[in-house]
Design goal:
alpha/beta; 184 residues; Rossmann fold
Length: 184
């Protein structure tokens, strides 16, 4: 009989959470992505809290993403959080009863590391016993730092597992999820 595990996929805006879920889901993923309406505005216009305007990204998750995959004897229900702080009310709703979480980091965006630290602190404070894996995304880029070098800027404990990830590659996403499922 297959184990059923609720897995949270979290991280800051543009880290690759929706792509991570789309890449691995065995069913058509549910997405609440919407067009970014403030994208491209002049820098004198204030962006909504938690939204950086210096990106080519045209859509953002406003509530959640959902996908499902079977890995070994486990059926993983993947719940992706919105990355923008203005939708942070969804984080606790999606985190209820999670068995583990993936903290997805945009390795190429040091400006997002403060947001990543805050999201991780949030998860650790509210769910201290829940296993997690830190996935250093975009490792296919030539200028991507090695995952181990992210420990200090992300303020991660020495026992935190940091794995390389490319959220567009099924084998990469699967490796992260296999590792997390083994930890649960």
């Amino acid at each position: 009989m297959a184990r059923t595990l609720k897995i949270l996929i979290t991280g800051p805006f543009s880290a690759g959470k929706s792509t991570f879920i789309r890449t691995i889901s065995e069913l058509a993923p549910v997405s609440t992505e919407r067009k970014i309406t403030r994208h491209g505005f002049a820098s004198t216009v204030a962006a909504p809290r938690g939204l950086r305007l210096d990106t080519d990204k045209t859509h953002t998750t406003v509530a959640m993403d959902y996908g499902r995959v079977q890995i070994g004897d486990a059926v993983l229900h993947l719940h992706g959080t919105p990355g923008q702080a203005r939708f942070d009310f969804m984080w606790e709703i999606l985190a209820r009863d999670m068995a583990g979480y993936v903290l997805l980091v945009d390795s190429l965006d040091p400006d997002s590391f403060a947001e990543t630290r805050a999201m991780h602190a949030y998860c650790l404070t509210r769910h201290p016993q829940v296993p997690y894996v830190v996935a250093a995304n975009k490792q296919d880029a030539a200028r991507a730092p090695r995952p181990a070098t992210l420990r200090r800027p992300l303020n991660l404990p020495l026992d935190a597992l940091i794995m390389p990830c490319v959220s567009t590659r099924r084998t990469s996403v699967k490796q992260v999820l296999v590792q997390l499922a083994d930890m649960i």
